[in-house]
Write a structure and sequence with these properties.
The complex is a heterodimer of chains A (269) and B (86). Chain A contains twelve helices and eight strands. Chain A has helices at 17-30, 47-51, 61-65, 71-74, 100-111, 127-133, 147-162, 177-181, 188-195, 207-215, 226-238, 253-261, and strands spanning 4-9, 35-39, 76-77, 84-87, 116-120, 138-143, 169-175, 198-204. The chains are: A alpha/beta (269), B alpha+beta (86). The A-B interface holds A 146-147, 150-151, 154-155, 157-158, 161, 180, 182-187, 190, 193-194, 196 and B 11-15, 17-18, 20-22, 24-25, 28-29, 67-68.
Amino acid sequence: MGAKVVTVTSGKGGVGKTTTTANIAAALAAAGHRVVCIDADIGLRNLDLVMGLENRIVYDLVDVVEGRCKLRQAMIKDKRVPNLYLIPAAQTRDKTAISPEDMIEVTAQLRRDNDWILIDSPAGIEGGFRNALAPADIVLIVTNPEVSAVRDADRIIGLVEAEEKDPPKLILNRVKPDMVRRGEMLKAEDVLEVLAIELIGVVPEDEQVLTASNRGTPLALDGRSRAGRAFQAIARRLMGEQVPLEEFAAEDGFLRRLSRKVRTGGQPA
Amino acid sequence: MILDWLRGRERGSARTAKERLQFVLVHDRAGVSASTLEALKDELIEAISRHVEIDREGVSVSLTKDRRRQRLVADIPLAERRTAKH
């Protein structure tokens, strides 16, 4: 069985794509799966920093595509979790350095020996996004409960559908339960109704996210923070487990009902 | 205006956000702006009036959605037949 390719995208920048990618990857690897992350944001490399691997980069994705190194040589091994690797983006090039076909080719080689390939997509709807989308089996859209982020997510959903991929799944990130309770923040129910796609996770706003990226240690490696647990739950849903929505999110009846319906992206292999 | 504003405050900004999103996304998805819709409405009134007498003021043309399926809905009331006997 080959790996599943999961592309994490959003349209709007700054909604938490990179954090989400790093955390889902770490959680999948911690569960014993073999995981490779690819930073597809050429020219704006960041996944290395969030994963704490920035000092170990020798080769990058563009080096692989242009034949300056073997794929293996560009894979940085995480020291904390076995079987977690990162292929970093090039920092001194731009998105035109690679094509959708290159991404399909690189992931084809990785599929054989891994369980998951996570691609961190750049923001926007142009070349870089197209590169990240091309090899995807599963598309995860990260958004925030905020009008412009939701609008951009809708645009991305349309583009994913136009590529005839399976319908993307939604991660609602940075939810403030207190504001939702006061009716001052869109709740998951609202966002799902507007976007008409399936939910795979709700992540609360959590200071620990910043602390973790300061340190370069994905939160999902220890389940002590609320956001970390939410990312772990998303990873488990991807692995095919039925995981109810976290308690902070299941405050009203609708979400409790919904949580029973949240289904996985990947069918168990 | 003020009433709208008060109502908005009363019920929380999340509901306003949701309604605004629903409106804007319907137009985004169809690639049809509000002004295109206005133009379309005028042309429809023109075309239909050539055949049937309609209540021009009552015509409404709008986009709606049903899941992710877009629909253009035109509601065209006929003019009251004043000559008709009741």
